[in-house]
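Hey,

Quick one before I head out. I ran the complex with fructose -6-phosphate overnight. Inputs first:
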Amino acid sequence: MLLVIREDYDAISKLASSRISDLLKKNPYAILGLATGSTPLGLYKELIRLHREEGLDFSRVQTFNLDEYVNVPREHDQSYYYFMQENLFKHINIPPDAIHMPNGMAADIEEECELYEEQIIKAGGIDLQILGIGCNGHIAFNEPYSSLGSRTRIKTLTEKTRNDNARFFKNMDEVPKYAITMGVGTIMDAKSIILMASGEKKADAIRNTVEGPITARLPATIVQMHRNATILIDKAAASQLDQSLKIAE
Ligand code: F6R
């Protein structure tokens, strides 16, 4: 596991985008694993800029997103599908059928989860997975105590997550109760991982992820076992690390 600390959010966004752009130049058919949330927004902005200004080509890429709400239609402005369209896909030249997201409206959710795993395998596996991290150490919707070997499956959202999300929906009934998420094991199968974090509020989760024991209580800690994982963080997110570990600049 490589720890890379940069000055601020802009710097980590740029570095992550250059990793993706280098990969696409080497392998135009790369399979990217993508995340939603605030953390990758700067990275997506930079990818859009590289596409517009430097011709970065996404025409042969395939993407797989980590997660999606169940029972939230794709057109809903809170669906992760909508998020990805608005913040990346509609601004680059990726063909619509190269975009893979779990279908939270599928009639048979279990079947959908199996299908998603199969689609990833059929595509040849994820070459580079982008991850954010929750303050409680979650990755994708794998909340604390998720099995470290888990595969794509349906997860019940915690009351805290539902309450946090309530402001984005008309009423509490509309707030999703479930999500489909890649499992921790699915994420670990990616050939490389970049876990990004920015800001002091992530510092505790990052300290545990980098220095702590591996535990299902903090699913992100499993990334220590990955053969090609980079923890890409800014100085604020690194602020609680043991000083002697701060070597990679
Ligand atoms: C999103 C996802 C989540 C986020 C995490 C951090 O697809 O999988 O695990 O990465 O909740 O969210 P932000 O980046 O908003 O702090």
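Helices lie at 9-26, 41-54, 80-87, 109-123, 159-165, 184-188, 203-211.

Talk tomorrow,
K.
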